[in-house]
Fold:
Amino acid sequence: MLDRDAALQTIRDVYAARVSGDKEALATYWADDARFDFVGERSLLEPVGFSSESSMDQIGQLIDRFRFSDLELLDAVVEGEKIAARWEVTVAAEGKEPVRTQLFDLITLDEEGKIRSFIQFTDTALVRHVAA
Structure:
């Protein structure tokens, strides 16, 4: 079991790989059976167009479509293997102006410190706008 500081460092490292677009580095933080999901109205997320059920494939598609920059961790709560984190980030997509938004993540780590579950709450209307 990771302590609070190690768990937060893992999540910071995950997002550093996400911001840099490094899919290979990002994959090292995920357990084989990890689950990734957005929470929000599914019809608003249709423009994102996930074409795979695999979490890493979905994340790879997100990295290809949306660039992250200026990431800031605003709040985090760690309780055992569970992390709740709120971020502020600039998101850009091809042909769209960058937008500033917040993300809220509920993350569960396994005993090795790898992500077992990553559920992200985001502004689905904004995702639709940026993805369109």
Observations:
- The chain has a mean pLDDT of 88.
